[in-house]
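Before drawing any conclusions, I needed to go through one protein's amino acid sequence and its backbone structure tokens, quoted below without any editing.
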Amino acid sequence: MKWAVFFLILLTPAALEAQTPPVEPIPPGEDRIASVSVGQPAPFTGQLFDPLTALRWANWLQQYKYRLELDVGKEREMCSVEKAYRDELLAAEEKRAQKVEQDLFKRLAKSEKARLMAEEELRNPPWYSTPVFGVVVGAVATAVVFGMAIAAIDAAVVE
């Protein structure tokens, strides 16, 4: 099996190079080639390239044509791989979430008494957790501090 994968990877670039698409003229039409010497007027309007520049541009166009096809194919493959990975990750997370949920339901079912006690505590909190207790403690503490301040001021005035 390993050897088959190795040969598949080894022969894939050669197979891709052997399947080159046909070259199409863009834009379609007849080529107009005219020899022009320096100082002679051009026989038609447009751009005039020297032979090396024209050859270079033609090669670039040809290379970019093939490059576009390869890049698009590569991006599609990468997107399909990323999508497959995302789908697998989502499935794993959903499976994990279901197991956690089932475990929590089992724990709640086992500890029905603890659940009932927690609900009772929410409905009837202990006396020291009520707002009334906090207000009373705050008022008493304020009165004690106020009384101590008055006593300190009286003691300072008497001396």
About this structure: The radius of gyration is 43 Å. Residues 140 and 146 are 10 Å apart (CA to CA). Helices lie at 2-18, 51-110, 112-123, 131-158. The chain is about 75% helix and 0% strand.
